[in-house]
Design a protein that fits this description.
CATH superfamily of the largest domain: His-Me finger endonucleases
Order of helices and strands: HEEHHHHH
CATH architecture of the largest domain: 3-Layer(aba) Sandwich
Shape: elongated
Distance between the termini: 62 Å
Length: about 150
């Protein structure tokens, strides 16, 4: 069955009710039916080709499309199906890596985030780490870098 343009609004209302007004990707409430995006498969072949899948938040729909596009350009499409890749990625990301060492860029990334904090927040962070704040934001950044290098070297 092909949903006509004239039938889209009614179909979206049906999906909205079936989904209890929840986006299946982020599990947050959808706004109004009109704000919700009617997601569909962009595949042109296969059992799900062109089929409507559900209502998504605009941001979720956009991100899904961007990810699909990046995947198709990655060269992986001949090696693994997108769904299998996502299943593997989900399992990989949900693993507990607490016993692994820190990546060398962790310090750099942490310092960059700290440097973007307000002076008040920087002082609070340094205090929680047991370090005294310096006389300037620049000093605080140096103190933070030294403090976390020692902390994460253990």
């Amino acid at each position: 069955m092909l949903v006509s343009i004239a039938e889209v609004k009614q179909y979206k209302e049906t999906l909205y009710a079936q989904q209890n007004g929840i986006c299946p990707l982020c599990n947050h409430e959808l706004g109004s039916v009109n704000e919700s995006h009617l997601d569909h498969s962009h595949d042109l072949t296969g059992n799900n080709a062109g089929k409507c899948r559900g209502l998504l938040h605009a941001q979720c729909n956009l991100l899904e499309g961007m990810i699909r596009h990046k995947f198709s350009r990655s060269g992986l499409t001949t090696k693994i199906e997108l769904g299998v890749f996502f299943k593997n990625l989900t399992e990989y990301l949900l693993n507990d890596y607490g016993d692994k060492p820190y990546h060398p860029k962790f310090i750099t990334d942490s310092v960059r985030k700290f440097s973007k904090s307000t002076r008040k927040d920087q002082k609070s962070i340094l205090e929680r780490l047991g370090a005294l704040a310096g006389a300037s934001k620049e000093e605080d950044i140096k103190i933070y870098r030294k403090t976390i290098k020692v902390l994460y070297a253990q």
